[in-house]
Amino acid sequence: xxxxxxxIKSFQQLPYRSVFAWRFAQxxxxxxxxxxxxxxxxxxxxxxxxxxxxxxxxxxALLVLFAGLWRNVCPLATTNLLPRHLGLSKRKxxxxxxxxxxxxxxxxxxxxxxxxxxxIFNTNALATGILIISATGVSITVGLFYEWKxxxxxxxxxxxxxxxxxxxxxxxxxxxxxxxxxMNCVVPCPDSTPNINPGSSVxxxxxxxxxxxxxxxxxxxIWGWFHVADTTGVRTLNGLLTAYELPLTGLLTTLTIYMxxxxxxxxxxxxxxxxxxxxxxxxxxxxxxxxxxxxFGNLGRDGLLIDLxxxxxxxxxxxxxxxxxxFFFFRLFIGSKNKKxxxxxxxxxxxxxxxxxx
Length: 358
Fold this sequence. Notes:
By secondary structure, the protein is mostly helical. The protein has one domain (about 15-355). It is built from 13 helices and no strands. The longest helix has 30 residues, at about 45-75. The two termini are about 15 Å apart.
């Protein structure tokens, strides 16, 4: 029989200097988030550029390669976990059903909020600031009641479904800079499960629905979203519906394709199918986002960061688009899984809880 003490030593135990370094990094990124929020409220054009045209475009690639790094330094995560770090959280455990409901709510929130960018958030910095403040308020509230990352970072956050979809084959495993002890607050833990994906946990109908919606629906949703132009507000119901028409049409199309393929594909190929749709989603995103950022977008100046239309040849853009697509398909679909998790699992709170989780 293996010695339990030796097994415990295999888990992460961060030295003081590493903890300090991560706290510094978290504080630095958190202050960066505050700076972006300040710009959104008082310097609208700068705030919109920093948030929608720099931070958000970098996020998908960051999730593909370094999802654990983002989980460690995300400003909303840092805010959500402050009550736990300060001993103010009631540390309640969520049931499997409650976790599934939060996961489904996160997917639905993503599909509801993102189309609103075209009619509100992309052109209205104040509204974007209010959105961030509202999300911060929700994250702090659930952090006061529930254990570690269970309710927000691994539950209600609209980015989390995308993390699980894109983060299935990360480049590195980072230390866990938040959880000092594993409390089994989410099983399986998205941070510590190698090659996590939305289908890794289908304990309830809510888990299954959230998994199917994000895997099958996201590629078509992204395609449709990039074919809707920004407007300066919405005055009629028809204008509101226009923002959702193409994204939801695309979502239903790829969701139907996914459901058909999932039903005719053997179970052992399910991860490959998930990888294909993940690669399709992130490739579609950068296929449209890169040209828009550099002045070659199909909707004029929507999403423009820097206009290189007169200096960069068109073939250069196509090379960038093709290269990014090849990279993501190799990383998420063609290449072998490296069996890495986002973060190293911290030591269990006690050995009995470890045995229950295995």
